[in-house]
Protein: Putative ABC transport system permease protein
Amino acid sequence: MKLLIKLVWKDFKRNKSITTALTVFLFLSALLMAGGLRVTGTIISSLNSFNEVAIPPEYLQMHKGDFDEEELEHFVKKHDYIENSLVVKQLNIRNANIIYEGETLEKCLMDNGFVVQNEGFDLLLNMDNEIARVKEGEVGVPVYYAEELGIKRGDVITIHEGNFKKDLVVSTLIRDASMNGALTSSKRFLVSRMDLEEISSHMGEWEYSIEFLLEDGTAAAKLERDYMEEGMPSNGVAVTGKLLSIMNNISYGLVAAIIIAISIFLIIIAVLCLSYIIRATMAEENFAVGEMKAIGFPKKEIISLYQMKYVVLSLLAGALGFMVSVPFGNFFSSSVIMYCGYGTAEWMKWVYPLIGILLLCLFVMLGCRRIIKRNIKNTVVELMRGEENTQKEGHYILPDVLENRNLTIALGELKCKWKEYTVIFFVFVFSSFLILLPMNVKNTIENPSFITYMGVGESDIRIDIQYSDKLKEQKDAVESYIEKDNEIKKYVLYKTGYVQFENSDGQWEYIRVQSGDESVFPLEYLEGSSPQNMNEMAISYLQSLESGKKVGDKMNVAYDGKELVFTVSGIYQDITYGGKTAKAEIDFDENDVEVYIVYLDVEHGVSIDKKTDELRGILQDSKVTPIREFVSQTLGGIVSNMKLVEGAAAVISFLLIILITVMILKLITAREHSAIAVKKAIGFSSRDIKIQLGIRILAIQFAAIITGTILANTLGEAVFGLMLSSMGASKITMLVEPVWAYVICPAAQIVIVLITVVVSTNVVKYYHIRDQIVE
Structure:
């Protein structure tokens, strides 16, 4: 063992640059694997602990207007699968009436309601994950606003309308299991009962959140069906616990998935590099291996000798990766910790990464053993003659006239030795892919056209008229104003309500249907097209999956006591309302309309922001939002996390490019020592040889950048679509920033490689033919 360690140490000193580069490769693989699993462990621990205390509802129905409380109580008692129920009374206040640091919250997309602390379940927690309590004159502010607006404890929130004004001191930040993340469009402020009664006497509109906990094994769909069939209060949106979980946690899980995916790619690249280095090393050590086999060294000992180096490297890289993954994982876990807390299952943050590191080390060791075993299987004579290596050398013929000798020779050598460059090609492809994918994802989400994945066509401004006793009057007022506004180019009004449809089991389920002219702001359909007549219905991707309906199939629909038959005209993507919606020309009764939504485009040259402010001032009972801001705020958490991933991916990619270039050039110059010396003897300068090596590497990089860019725009779309498929979008079209994707990023990669080639090939000036003659 002592002899093995000495031999390994001697090899380390002889090949410092290659060993260092390989160690960094393995370190990055270990870091990302352990870091991604630490983020995963933190997410699971935080969410589980948070939900254990907060106890979120498994079904939630919003309702505006009066209802019969006794009838609701009777419904709960009659259905024994309901474990518990709760009616949360919430005072909705317009954003224009909530002031922070001299500005209203009018630019915020969220609907804001003021509540008192619940009893039993759906508890609002403070930042220590304890049940939050506030005194008179105090307010608990959603943690969302702490992140978006910088609100902190001790700040003052002012509620103002007319002559009424009330200042509330922020005493705590609120974590809300039902309405935590950006994807949930409502937020709750916690106040005392006295303050709520005082505020309600001057402003606001009451809304009720009717919530349920179910017995184990009971599906939320069963409760939803019974609830709607028995006519329970439902003037508002209904949400299942599963959907709440997806909306609150999608951005955390997306980051962990991307980090782990990157680490898997890195592990594959590291093993490819190992394979290349081991084969290159073994080719140079053939004679020594033949000697050892000739004097009786057991095959097992020879394998152990050459494997020892890589065992030490993988263990060292694994240990370093595990240690650095702690701050790395904590950094990328900061969002889930802020919204959900640290969690109580601390072991998950340590055990998951440790298991990942151990599996990585085992994978590397077994891979090394397999490669070494394959390379020493030749006979003693073959090994000592080096016959196999000689047979694999390629050859090329020089033309009679060398117009550009460096280019001709470089491309000729590349042609006959292309296998040596397979690894660097794949690393360059991966690096280009890794830079572009997070960038393209972020650009896609930030682009206003991303609204099409929310089930509507692209437009400039959205107006929400929802859940009000004066819904029709508000709708008429909006339409009347828009029709007279010459700065508005076009608009469309959609009304939304619920109908029943017969599922594959013959049971009737409720589905949210949007009715309006789909031709004004057309959607891209996955299959088929929008409804063209009264007998057609388009359904969302997830609704199609769940119901098994395809384009051309019939759907039995019940509304207003009548049973109708629709033909499925098309399937579209929608990540709102759990991804289960439909579009059809249904003449809803005014009392059955849940919400009106207006989408509009302004004339060319009209400022969208100014028009938004103007509409907000006039249509004070409606919520007016620019589409760009709507997408940004709805997916804000995902965008901010993707920016972090984008930066980390770029740094890792550039580091990979430098490392692989240094490593490959070291191996090439070592293996071609004699060929380089001969070239210099016949008149090639050190500069010529450096140019030839540079041309080889750059030719590989050009091909790799093109391949990586194509993969980012094709495979990247598939990967991103897979991530969003659980929300209702299966096919995403990546929106590329051409200057960054096709000019700046490739140029940065080429410049880095050029600098690395210049520095790494300086060694050729020391190569001389006399050294080869002496040898």
Q: What stands out?
A: Residues 183 and 679 are 65 Å apart (CA to CA). Confidence is low (pLDDT under 50) at residues 387-391.
